[in-house]
Amino acid sequence: MIRIAAVADVHVGADSVGKLRPQFEHIGERADVLLIGGDLTRLGTRDEAAIFADEVAGLPVPIVAVLGNHDYHFDDVPGLLSELERVGVRVLEGNTATITVDGARLGIAGTKGFGGGFANASGSDFGEPEMKMFMRHTHALADQLEASLASLDTDVRVALLHYAPVPDTLQGERLEIYPFLGSYLLGRAIDTAGADLALHGHAHAGTEKGITPGGVHVRNVALPVIRHAYRVYCVPTPGEVLDDTAACEVVAGAAASGAT
Q: What domains lie within the chain, and their CATH numbers?
């Protein structure tokens, strides 16, 4: 069983020095990997990224992240990546990471994702150039996510995003802003390629638990939603007997060879 610690939307700023590190004090005892679903910073500055990096440097578990909309605000993604990679944080955008845990392989496909809306209430690739650009960006990142997930030949596969792939985990947010919080295209990509678990953030007033139409568990791990430094999810490896005494939520998605 692979223990996945996950959080998003930590929004590190200048006043965060020394505050994040203590929250991860026992993570090595509780989890095998830490996944971060975007918005590591408040404004996307290199200084903020450096503070985040220093807070997580040397943690006893691998760290994999995607960026969120706040991380793009200052338009210095190369600076952010430099600081994060300095301490070994792997940042994904349309690509994958593989981590071995006690002989089992965890594959992570990551993307920021983007908005657009959900079934029967989604934008379309039609009309003004600005609308076409908006929706084509979502299509492109969803296509990358599908290809990345499909390329993983691992025991467990996880989709790591910032924007939501289903509306379930947005419940609590105003319905009017759903198109700016996620897209059904991301959920469709997950179902087509298959995954055991999908993680995202961004929706601060949303709900933790959801599921794709194909049966993949989705978890909104935005810090204001989970209200803990991180949440731990246990994903069984193929053929493993489920242990209902595990000190974390056991999730078993529709994975392996594709959910639909």
A: 2-250 (3.60.21.10)
